[in-house]
Specification:
Blueprint (H helix, E strand, L loop, with lengths): L1 H16 L4 H11 L14 H13 L24 H6 L1 H18 L3 H7 L7 H7 L1
Length: 133
C-alpha cells in the first residue's frame, strides 16, 4: 500500500509537469502497467482534478479491508439460467431476487424466475431482459 501511495505521488508529478495528453497517459497506464496487489482509481474531468485525486491517494492512510461487490453488465449478456449459482449460494441474493420477482411478475404477466431460470426465449425481449438484469 505504501508503494501505491508513492507511485501516486510520482504520477501526480508527471501529470502536473507533462504535456502528454490525458488520453495517452490513461491508455498507457491501462495497457502497459504491471498488475500489483494494491490498486487505486482516480477520475477527473481535467488535469487539475486528476492531480488532486492522485494527491489524495498519495496522502491517504491505511485503508480497511474492502468488501466484495458483484457487478452485472447491461443488456446483451443475458443467458438462460444466469444468476442461478448466486441464487443457490447466497441467501441474501435469493431474497432480493425473490422480492424483485414478486414485484415484477404482475407487470410482466408471467414469472420472471421461470423466464430467467427456465430458459424461456422471451428472455431476449427487452422488457424481460431489463427486468432480469
Amino acid at each position: 500500500a505504501e508503494a501505491l501511495r508513492a507511485q501516486a505521488g510520482k504520477l501526480a508529478a508527471f501529470v502536473r509537469g507533462s504535456d502528454a495528453s490525458l488520453l495517452d497517459i490513461g491508455y498507457s497506464l491501462a495497457s502497459s502497467r504491471t498488475v500489483f496487489e494494491h490498486r487505486a482509481v482516480v477520475v477527473g474531468a481535467d488535469r487539475e482534478e486528476l492531480v488532486a485525486g492522485l494527491e489524495k491517494v498519495r496522502a491517504a492512510g491505511a485503508v480497511g479491508a474492502a468488501g466484495t461487490a458483484f457487478l452485472f453488465t447491461g443488456q446483451g449478456c443475458q443467458r438462460a439460467g444466469m444468476g442461478r449459482e448466486l441464487y443457490e449460494a447466497f441467501p441474501v441474493f435469493a431474497e432480493a431476487f425473490d422480492a424483485a420477482c414478486a414485484y415484477l411478475d404482475g407487470h410482466l404477466g408471467r414469472s420472471l424466475k421461470d423466464v430467467v431460470f427456465g430458459g424461456d426465449p422471451v428472455l431476449d425481449q427487452t422488457r424481460f431482459t431489463q427486468a432480469a438484469l
